[in-house]
Automatic annotation (TrEMBL):
Entry-linked InterPro entries: Anti-sigma-factor_SerPK, HATPase_C_sf, HATPase_dom
Key words of the record: Kinase, Serine/threonine-protein kinase, Transferase
Protein known as: Anti-sigma regulatory factor (Ser/Thr protein kinase)
Gene3D superfamilies tied to this protein: Histidine kinase-like ATPase, C-terminal domain
Keyword Kinase: yes
Domain of life: Bacteria
KW Cell membrane (keyword) present: no
Residue stretches making up the Histidine kinase/HSP90-like ATPase domain: 31-146
Region (Disordered): 1-26, 99-118
Length: 158
C-alpha cells in the first residue's frame, strides 16, 4: 500500500449508509474510532446474524487496535493512517505514525538502548496476540506497523 493511500484511509460503517448506498465515512483519529471501524469491518466479514465472529477473537482484535493506535498517539508523534481490511480468515491492520523509532523489543528480547525507558504492556500484548507483525520505516519518515489478526467463526475450536 502506498503511503498516501494509508494516510487517507477512512473507515466505513457497515450498517450506516448515505444516499445511493454509499458508505458513511469519518476519519480515524482516536483509538475509539479505530475500534469502531475494525468492528464494522469484522461485522461486514462475519455477519453477526448468520456467521458471527468468535467473541474471543473480536476482543483480541479490538485490544490490538487500541494498543497500536494509542502507541501511535502517545509515542509515535501522532496517528498518520489507519486501515483494517477483512480477509477470509482474519483482519489485516496497518497503523502509521510519524516516528522512525521502532518499539522496544520489536527486534527480539534484547534490552532497550541505554538511557531509554521501557514501555508498558501494550507492545508485548500486540506481539502475543497478533500474527505476521511487520514494521516498515517510511521513506518520508515515520513507520507503518502491519499485523494480521485471525478471526474464527463462533463455534470454531480455539
Amino acid at each position: 500500500m502506498r503511503e498516501d493511500e494509508l494516510a487517507s484511509a477512512r473507515p466505513t460503517r457497515a450498517r450506516a449508509r448515505a444516499r445511493h448506498g454509499a458508505p458513511v465515512q469519518a476519519p480515524v483519529t482516536t483509538a475509539a474510532a479505530a475500534r469502531a471501524h475494525a468492528r464494522a469491518v469484522a461485522e461486514a466479514g462475519w455477519d453477526p446474524a448468520t456467521r458471527p465472529a468468535h467473541e474471543t477473537d473480536m476482543i483480541d482484535l479490538l485490544l490490538v487496535v487500541s494498543e497500536l493506535v494509542t502507541n501511535a498517539l502517545r509515542h509515535g508523534g501522532g496517528l498518520a493512517g489507519f486501515e483494517a481490511v477483512s480477509g477470509p480468515d482474519g483482519i489485516r491492520l496497518a497503523v502509521r505514525d510519524h516516528s522512525d523509532e521502532v518499539p522496544s523489543g520489536a527486534c527480539g528480547p534484547a534490552p532497550p538502548p541505554s538511557g531509554r525507558a521501557t514501555g508498558g504492556y501494550g507492545w508485548p500484548l500486540v506481539l502475543r496476540l497478533a500474527r505476521e507483525v511487520d514494521i516498515e520505516k517510511e521513506p518520508a519518515g515515520g513507520k507503518t506497523i502491519r499485523v494480521f489478526m485471525p478471526v474464527r467463526t463462533a463455534g470454531e475450536p480455539l
